[in-house]
Amino acid sequence: MPKKICMVFGTRPEAIKMAPVIKELQKAEDCFSLRVVVTAQHREMLDQVLDLFGIQADYDLNLMQPGQSLPDLGCRILSRLTPVFLRERPDLVMVHGDTSTTFLGALAAFYLRIPVAHVEAGLRTYRPYSPFPEEMNRRLTGALATYHFAPTRTAAGNLLAERIPPSAVMVTGNTVIDALLAVAARPDLRLPREVAEIPPGQKVILVTTHRRENLGEPLRRIYSALRLLLADFPDLWVVFPVHRNPLVWKTAEEVLGDLSRVRLLAPLEYGPFVALMRRADLVLTDSGGIQEEAPALGKPVLVLRDTTERPEAVRAGTVRLVGLDREKIRAEVRRLFLDEAAYREMAQAVNPYGDGRAAGRISAFLQWLYGYRAERPEEFGVGE
Ligand code: UD1
Ligand code: UDP
User: Fold this and answer.
1) Active site residue 376
2) What is the 111 CA–ligand 2 centroid distance (Å)?
3) Cα dist from 102 to 117, 139, 174, whole Å
4) For the segment 174-228, what is each residue's pLDDT rounded down to a tens digit?
5) Residue 208: helix, strand or coil by DSSP?
6) Are residues 323 and 204 in the same domain?
7) 249: enclosing H helix or E strand
8) Which residue in 12, 42, 76, 210 is the catalytic one?
9) Is residue 96 part of a domain?
10) Closest ligand 2 atom to the C-alpha of 285?
């Protein structure tokens, strides 16, 4: 009998990063019987990804509400997932990352004594409010999970230091690189029209922001830095696919809406977004996933946060933490655009996060765990 696995996710990045795992587990149909359960913590941004990868949800809880609060969302996830797990009685629940869906999905499974596998486990800042609430979501999920798929040796080291048994930890690489390489190889990859119109040779900064701790004043400082930079560099364009959170839209529109070399766009489908990352000269972001993807494409990233749970690319020199001070952000961008050597140093393609085979390792580990395969698979070893 194949083992029944419920894959639970709900936001855009979880869907991008779980899609390769779904594909791999579906290939091993003699070993696994999958149920895809989406909370739809995100609605439109999730659907974009499900469509792209051709994923059909077996359960769609359709939980998103405008301006959702953490307690309300958390209660809805816990109470609506529980009957699904009771009905399906899976052998394993798989969750991804550090969102409300991740933590409450793991908790719902734990309450029913269903083992949990955590994909993208072990990333830490060890600062409870940074990022908020993701650092704590990921730690709590780690405490609830039985199996931990760590993307890098650093992440695995964090788990071992927390006394998770080594037999339960597997270094896989990050599945985002699987998704990125698959999408980047598509022959029909196109830039969004608004970006294709920018004359070749002009500089493009790609911006994304959405972190809860950055909403309000910090976002205003970031966007003010961009205003100054647009005045500093007459050949500079800012392309900003804006997160659907209305609080992000509002501030972006207020500070940047009147500028001619700014393109505020609705969230892009993953394909055009990958094409945009390739076109960009520089990425400014507070996103987790983009910190992993842009280095693989050789794009320098300035991270609009004070800490990161993804130190590998910082160590490799392609990602730099610039914080949230307007003048600091401006100075860092100016330095990169005015000093060619400094730019070249950061624009190295590095792949500390994966080799495109993370999902295959996860599938192989689970096949070994359930006795379908004799050997524990080899771990992802590049980077640290
Ligand atoms: C969530 C995750 C965060 C992750 C991010 C990825 C939590 C607590 N936060 O943050 O870890 O990095 O997703 O993007 O789990 N909205 C829409 N349509 C959408 C998506 C969002 O309208 O498709 C709006 C809604 O008003 C929603 C709000 O954005 O209430 C915030 O969404 P929410 O999932 O609570 O938080 P994010 O900031 O997106
Ligand atoms: N992304 C996308 N379209 C966009 C912006 C981002 O497809 O308009 C992708 C991006 O390539 C990455 C993921 O969404 O894979 C990151 O999502 P987000 O920044 O919302 O979340 P985080 O990674 O910070 O949790």
Assistant:
1) no
2) 31
3) 11, 11, 16
4) 999 999 999 999 999 999 999 999 999 999 999 999 999 999 999 999 999 999 9
5) strand
6) yes
7) helix 246-256
8) 210
9) yes
10) 19
Residues 82 and 163 in one domain: yes
162 and 211, same structural domain? no
What's the structural domain count of the chain?
A: 2
Residue 239 domain-assigned (yes or no): yes
Establish whether the linkage from the previous residue to 246 is cis, with ω within 30° of 0. Answer: no
Closest ligand 1 atom to Cα of 287: 12
301: containing domain: 193-347
- For 202-238, letters b (16+ CB in 10 Å) and e give ebbbbbbbbbebbbeebbbbbbbbbbebbeebeebbb
The yes-or-no answer on residue 212 being catalytic is yes
Q: CA angle 382-289-132, nearest 5°?
A: 115
Of 17, 99, 248, the residue with max ligand 1 atoms within 8 A of its CB, to mutate for a pocket test, comes to 99
Distance 99 CA to ligand 2 centre (A): 13
Residue nearest to atom 3 of ligand 1 (CA): 99
243 is catalytic: yes
Distance, CA 383 to ligand 1 centroid (Å)?
31
Q: Same domain for 153 and 69?
A: yes
Q: Is 98 known to be catalytic?
A: yes
| CATH code (residue 111) | 3.40.50.2000
Same domain? 118 vs 7:
yes
Give dist(CA 97, CA 16) in Å, integer. Answer: 11
Do residues 239 and 364 share a domain? no
pLDDT band (50, 70, 90) for residue 381: confident
**Residue 42 among the catalytic residues:** no
Q: Give residue 3 CA to ligand 2 midpoint distance, Å.
A: 31
Summarised one tens digit per residue, pLDDT across range 27-67 is 999 999 999 999 999 999 999 999 999 999 999 999 999 99
Tell if the pTM clears 0.85, that is, is over it. Answer: yes
